[in-house]
Amino acid sequence: MKQPVVKGHPLHAMASDLPAAGLVISYLFDVLSRTAAPAAEAPSLEAVGGGISHVLSEATRRQTRFRDVATSTLAAAIGGGALAGAFGWWDFLNIPAHHPARTPALLHGLLNTGLLTLGGVNLLTRRDQARWGRTAAVPFALSTAGIGVLLVSAWIGGDLIYRLGWRVRPAEQLEILEPELKKAGQEGLAQSAKQQVERYEKDSALIP
Fold first, then answer.
1. What pLDDT, on the 0 to 100 scale, is given for residue 173?
2. Is 173 exposed, middle or buried (0-12, 13-18, 19+ CB in 10 A)?
3. 116 within 8 A of 81, measured Cβ to Cβ
4. What is the per-residue pLDDT for 95?
5. Percent of the chain that is helix, strand, coil (3-state, to 5)
6. What tens digit of pLDDT does each residue of 115-163 get?
7. Same-domain status, 147 and 182
């Protein structure tokens, strides 16, 4: 099977950044929509029937604009995430069965697939919102849950790259060298290199 890599660059890593950022931006606009205070002197949505924009307060129109930007950004993130997910599962199929990255990669993929499904449900619930006003409670709760799933999945994705070395060329080269060093009776060199990296991480990390 061909690898999802172009000129040394993994397609999954390149495709996943924008959708992840889009989910965060969408959530921020949802928060703005929910926290924008309505004007006390303006007529309520119930009083005007919820459909006459020129008699609504500026705060209500602002809530609606924030909500609409959040929904559009969410839709774009889901579309981009579907492409990133396809590259991710392609990447997963290329991980050798014995590789330590395989199990966390499976969990990472399942979380992201669940996140896309949650986002799709979120978009459907937004279709039932009133024409004007802030993001409704159910879509906002789904977006909040989605951000939680994204954080967990991103943590595991970081492990795949920075701890387990998947798609990192020096780490893959070391994996190939280790059996050869062991045959030559020099396996201590690889172990020494790992220990030096561990010491560096412990000494220099913000939170070891």
1. 81
2. exposed
3. yes
4. 93
5. 75, 0, 25
6. 999 999 999 999 999 888 899 999 999 999 999 999 999 999 999 998 8
7. no
Q: Are residues 129 and 185 in the same domain?
A: no
Domain containing 198 equals 168-208
Q: Is 117 in the same domain as 201?
A: no
Residues 6 or more apart whose CB falls under 8 angstroms from that of 149 comprise 111, 114, 115, 118
C-alpha dist (Å) from residue 163 to 181, 182, 198? 21, 22, 10
The tokens describing 48, both together, are 């005007």
Q: Residue 112: what residue type?
A: N
Q: What is the percent of the chain where pLDDT is above 70?
A: 90
Do 204 and 144 belong together in one domain?
no
Assess whether 163 and 173 both reside in one domain. no
Regarding whether 75 and 151 lie in a shared domain, the answer is: yes
pLDDT in tens, 17-56: 999 999 999 999 999 999 976 655 555 555 555 555 555 6
Query: Mean pLDDT in the chain?
Result: 88
Q: Do 111 and 173 reside in the same domain of the chain?
A: no
In whole angstroms, give the CA distance from residue 91 to residue 16: 13
Question: Structural domain tally of the chain?
Answer: 2
Are both 134 and 207 inside the same structural domain? no
Which pLDDT does position 59 carry in this prediction?
80
Read off the tokens for 27.
């959530």
